[in-house]
Amino acid sequence: GERADGRPLKQRLLVVANRLPVSAVRRGEDSWSLEISAGGLVSALLGVKEFEARWIGWAGVNVPDEIGQKALTKALAEKRCIPVFLDEDIVHQYYNGYCNNILWPLFHYLGLPQEDRLATTRSFQSQFAAYIKANEMFADVVNKHYKDGDVVWCHDYHLMFLPKCLKDHNKGMKVGWFLHTPFPSSEIHRTLPSRSDLLHAVLAADLVGFHTYDYARHFVSACTRILGLEGTPEGVENQEKLTRVAAFPIGIDSDRFMRALENPQVQEHIKELKETFAGRKVMLGVDRLDMIKGIPQKILAFEKFLEENPEWRDKVVLLQIAVPTRTDVPEYQKLTSQVHEIVGRINGRFGTLTTVPIQHLDRSLDFLQLCALYAVTDVALVTSLRDGMNLVSYEFVACQDSKKGVLILSEFAGAAQSLGAGAILVNPWNITEVANSIARALNMSPQEREKRHRHNFKHVTTHTAQEWAETFVSELNVTVVEAELRIKQ
Ligand code: ADQ
Questions:
Q1: Best mutation site among 23, 389, 463 for ligand 1, i.e. most ligand atoms within 8 A of its Cβ?
Q2: What is the pTM of this model?
Q3: Residue 74 CB neighbours (<10 A)
Q4: Quick one: which of 231, 238, 179, 177 has its CA closest to 207?
Q5: What ipTM did this prediction achieve?
Q6: How far is the centre of ligand 1, averaged over its atoms, from the C-alpha of 445 (Å)?
Q7: Could you read off the pLDDT of 48-57 as tens digits, one per residue?
Q8: How many angstroms separate the CA atoms of 428 and 435, rounded?
């Protein structure tokens, strides 16, 4: 619907993220099949009724020809998605290179890759140039679709240049930027050769959001120490302009998980899983196979637990579901073999003819299977070395209202700030501490489990993804209005 003045009835929200929430498969010269992938962000925004969301992003495929691009654009329009076309070289340098090989590890405290330590190396500079170019390509698409009154919400470390590109083109655009990863200490950020350019580009936004107060504080410190700007409780003073900086902890669509548990197919899966693991306690890890998730550390802690608690050896199983990601990046290939080697060794050491202590899968599970698995789990193990939030811990809690299992959670996940009182918090680098926590979780009294679960369940069901998205966007609207008032005064 439209108003009399031609503006849409609901405020339009342009959500810009590196990847569109669809997977696209080409079926012919001008035909595509599309599948919506219901990640956290998608379900968050589906629930938001005040806004009419449109998605802008890369469809994850290389489409060099015009016929294919046209057909894909048309197919995506039905899903309210607008594609940004990136060619293979840009994807290699911007996505695999600058985003995943430089910013991702740096923001998770893993440092810069050795060969790129000097800004003078060609690869760093050309990757950074590709990063800016890619961000400009996203901006072009946003500018083409933007209408007065729209809100533009940019997501994540892939698009740190986007706020600047957008504001350079149109000062009046409402632009917000949200980071899904941690923002590291300013001492880490300052090692990045392009540290200042990135900070300035983000500061062009009206509102900058992070999962936790600590990340927001690190960002403000980086701006004051590296750029010499003024930090205030509101954000960062940038000459004539205030950029508002705040924490907006994400959540999940908890109802979607709880509804799924009532689905007959899920009930059937639950029954099968219970039969398969009868007589054993189930421990669960669900992660993208990424170095930040601390998977080797988790498995080594489980080994130590088995070593020290022989009475548990045939009474517990660890199911580790690890979805392969970024398989083009060599570090990720190395991690896969490292994990396989440790799992093989431990299963060789503690397995019997009929059972193994660790079942490791290199794949993702569909939503209904995942829910069933969460529901039958006794102890979930989240041992991220760093993690912006970690939604797996939230999803586990949402599915545990009848079982009341225990969550072991890394203190370096953003979720530790919200689920800390209900979970057993651990330092994932301390293998002994994690092993002891496994023993404690398996032996915990039902009363204590109930009490801890109540705390987390309340949090997860009241701090939802929908509420997160609404809060961010309404805060962005308010921020812009306040800024206009300040200028008029
Ligand atoms: P991720 O690093 O991807 O997200 P996480 O928050 O745990 O981490 O979300 C992963 C999602 O993928 C979950 O919804 C989970 O169910 C799903 N998933 C993971 N492994 C799976 C498997 N084996 N099979 C099926 N599904 C699987 C980034 C940041 C996080 C931050 C989120 C949201 O790194 O810190 O919480 O964004 O901001």
A1: 389
A2: 0.95
A3: 11
A4: 177
A5: 0.97
A6: 30
A7: 778 899 999 9
A8: 10
